[in-house]
Records
---
Amino acid sequence: MDRDRLLVLGLSEPTLTMIFDNLASAGRFPQVHVVDNLRRTGLRPFDDPRFTITRSSDNAHSGGPSDAFLGVSKPPTKVAVAALFAHLGLAYTTIVHATAAVSHTARLAPGVLVNSLVSIAAFAELGEFVSVNRHASIGHHTRLDAYCTVNPGANIAGDVRVGARTLIGIGVNVVDGVTIGADTVVGAGSVVTKNLPDGVVAHGNPCRVVRDHTPGSS
């Protein structure tokens, strides 16, 4: 990150914690401005003594150049926040924890968040605003489309396709070559051995569809 300011859009206290820990792990301490008008829960006011943090509820960005990042993690909320600020033409950055092992052949789009002890193998591709949480593993030639979230401890094998806005739960295992549709939720601890369609909730070992999923309800 070349600039010394970071504009964080939306406020989720756990997500901000991850962002700041990742920046600090790489010795990066930009000035941070949090736009928190999208907060929907009663979170405590966020502070981190390692950073200079200002806050506002004004989505009309001003104050000079800065990198931008989404301060929220659920796929529907990421979509809503990005859409609200799309008219500003912001330059989104990618934030990777220093302990993550990312192949030099992997491709990370703008807005990607990669947390501690994550492994991303050769030729993997992560679309815009994908979040990969701690101890997760992304296999070779796997593609995660925009706005996906992979929760802690998930293991996605090689040559897997995951559609946009899909949520992969804690500790999920996905075998090689599987396709998971867009706007789908895969429940915690599931073992995905066969393709899953768009817009469903699925869980279990082996993973099975249990109901339809309305985008925005996760």
---
Amino acid sequence: MINSKTAKSSNIKATVREWAESILIAFVLAMIIRTFLVQAFKIPTGSMRMTLIEGDAILVNKFIYGAKIPFTDIRLPALRQPARGDVIVFIFPQDTKKDFIKRIAALPGETVEIKNGEIFINDKPVIDKKINSRYYYNRGDYGDLGKKIVVPEDQYFVLGDNSASSQDSRYWGFVPKKNLLGKAMVIYWPPSRIRLIE
């Protein structure tokens, strides 16, 4: 005959073990999703207004450009390469403890110039409503009037949509491809702001 105290103790141990296993599995899955698939970020400043405003919570697609394997410089295969107009999250080149969000304006090997509020690529104005619907100010060492900048190989020239209030490539230069974390996909909070990011 089984002692009721022993049976009760065994049931408690089994329940605790099941909960511990469930929590461990959930944690491992969450880490895999966060590392390789999708990560949440919160917008702290108005540098991307009106596309993104302070307090927006967004989801970033990390596998589209090839997620980075932690503690290495190895990336998984990309679905596609970063394109002009993509809103990207990246590790800030001048302080690797910070993540920034900006829009790609110029690609590797292109010559970029800001003139009369427009972006010129290889001496031609950009025809892309994500970019040419905004006014860009001539500011910073890389954004002076009359200055043409060649984007180095495997790097990107990025700008904030709110050009009057954005610390971007005009001031500090280029974003190395290795610093890319992913493409901003959707605003998921607050509910009144839920939408795809374009």
